[in-house]
Amino acid sequence: CVRALDPGPEYALTDGFPVPRMPCPSLAIKKGDAVAISVAAASIVAKVTRDRIMVRMHRRYPAFGFNHNMGYGTPEHMEVLDRLGPTPIHRFSFACVGQPLLPGFGRAGGLPTWETDSHESMTR
């Protein structure tokens, strides 16, 4: 995303942690959204963008209620995740998605076969 900017930034502030392969010098600021107005503004833009994406993803995976939970691990979202398994848009790096807490998923287990809106089989 940063690489697509024209002109590119001369320096970047990041919220909380360094970003690998940043194309310019940068500074990670703990709780950056509370101390730097530019980080706070970027945080708002990122959250609004994420919410819009989740509303679109709700059309593809309505059972998950992404239009309400915006991808957060609400009890309802976790129940559907437990029952249906993760979709291709779930982040497997999150412990509640990638760990064998889901029925039928061992550490070496496979991933679920999904039925999409158009009823085409989708395997991840």
Verbal overview:
This protein has 124 residues and is α+β, with helices and mostly antiparallel strands. The protein has one domain: Ribonuclease H-like superfamily/Ribonuclease H (Nucleotidyltransferase, domain 5, 2-Layer Sandwich). It is 37% helix and 11% strand. It is built from five helices and four strands. The strands form two sheets. Strands 1-2 form a two-stranded parallel ribbon.
Keywords:
single chain, 124 residues, alpha+beta, Nucleotidyltransferase, domain 5, two-stranded parallel sheet, two-stranded antiparallel sheet, 11% strand, elongated, disordered C terminus
**Principal-axes shape call:** elongated
Alpha-beta classification = alpha+beta
CATH topology: Nucleotidyltransferase, domain 5
| Tally of distinct domains | 1
How many helices does DSSP assign?
5
N- and C-termini, Cα separation = 26 Å
Q: What fraction of residues sit in β-strands? A: 5-15%
C-alpha-based Rg, rounded:
18 Å
Mean pLDDT comes to 81
At the first level of CATH, what is the class? Alpha Beta
The CATH architecture is: 2-Layer Sandwich
Helix content: 25-40%
Annotated CATH homologous superfamily: Ribonuclease H-like superfamily/Ribonuclease H
Which stretches of 5+ consecutive residues score pLDDT under 50? 104-124
Number of DSSP-assigned strands: 4
Helix and strand sequence: EEHHHHHEE
Question: Sheet bearing the most strands, described?
Answer: 2 strands, parallel
Strand order, sheet with most strands: 1-2
